[in-house]
Write a structure and sequence with these properties.
The protein has two domains: about 80 residues, Leucine Dehydrogenase, chain A, domain 1 (Rossmann fold), CATH 3.40.50; about 120 residues, NAD(P)-binding Rossmann-like Domain (Rossmann fold, 3-Layer(aba) Sandwich), CATH 3.40.50.720. The protein has about 290 residues and is of the alpha/beta class. It is built from ten helices and eleven strands. It is about 40% helix and about 20% strand. The strands form three sheets. A six-stranded parallel sheet has the order 1-11-8-7-5-6, with helices on one face.
Length: about 290
């Protein structure tokens, strides 16, 4: 079946769209049912530093989804000029607050703040994004409790193609070795053997990418992956986003994919909504 998605209907003729909203709605409905049947209301605290418009939109989307499933949402808004120590003190306070189930610091942070130091300050048991080094290591060791939400969302989209995955081959393209490691582990758990390719070596790896059954790109480079780089039947996950003028675009050039028999996740409406749903699933897990 050929699915159509939003304003891109005019170009989606042959490729099959992996619509993230349907997947996200299923996850959110499950969380909502669990909370209704339970005796406690999870509390999700999101810290937003500055007034970046895109970050404000992302936090508002998380708030809307949290309220839908019955999670209490606390939004901590801090000025752009907030110091590193002040942000850390806010996180320490949330760590010590027994009523708070999960903590998120919305990225990117203002340039004067050290992102990794701030992420490291979050209690791993409340790190619902899964970015804390302890949670990343638990995933790599196969012992995770709070699954890093970005890799999980990508796997959910891969599975939604509805094709057998065992024995398939994947290429993961990115600019972070840690992300590459996490994705290869996540893919291996659904029977897919993967290889990580750094975005700056993509030209010399084109033949390798062309032979892959699954291609995951998370680089934030517009139209990096084109139709001539993938074979028919490939599952292509559009995990990177960037802005071109007023438009939000992905790593995948959908126009060049239109006549190919491939599965593609769109931007927007692909990985994004599934990531939010997985995030709230972690909030529920943390509350338990």
């Amino acid at each position: 079946m050929h699915l159509l998605f939003g304003s891109e209907n005019h170009i989606l003729k042959h490729m099959k769209v992996l619509a993230g909203k349907k997947i996200a709605d299923t996850i959110l409905d499950t969380i909502r049912e669990k909370i209704v049947q339970g005796n406690t209301v999870p509390v999700f605290a999101a810290v937003l530093v500055g007034d970046d418009p895109a970050s404000q939109i992302y936090v508002n989307l998380k708030e809307k989804a949290a309220l839908f499933v019955g999670i209490e949402f606390r939004k901590i808004l801090l000025p752009e000029t907030t110091s590193q120590e002040e942000v850390l003190q806010e996180i320490y306070h949330l760590n010590d607050d027994a009523s708070v189930s999960g903590i998120l610091v919305q990225l990117p942070l203002p340039v004067h703040l050290e992102t990794q130091i701030i992420i490291d300050a979050i209690d791993p048991k409340k790190d619902v994004d899964g970015f804390h080094p302890d949670n990343i290591q638990l995933l790599l060791d196969g012992k995770e409790i709070l699954i890093p939400v970005f890799p999980r969302a990508i796997i959910e989209l891969v599975k939604s193609a509805g094709v057998p995955l065992s024995g398939k081959r994947a290429v993961v393209i990115g600019n972070s070795d840690i992300f590459g490691q996490m994705m290869l582990v996540a893919l291996s758990r659904v029977g897919v053997e993967g290889t990580f390719v750094r975005y700056d070596t993509i030209e010399c790896k084109r033949a390798h990418i062309l032979s892959a059954d699954v291609v995951v790109s998370a680089c934030g480079i517009p139209n990096l992956i084109t139709g001539d780089m993938v074979k028919s039947g490939t599952i292509v996950i559009n995990g990177g986003i960037s802005k071109v003028g007023d438009k939000v675009v992905g790593d995948v050039d959908n126009v060049s994919m239109q006549d190919k028999d491939v599965f593609v996740s769109p931007v927007p409406g692909g990985v994004g909504p599934v990531t939010i749903a997985c995030l709230l699933d972690n909030v529920y897990t943390a509350s338990r």
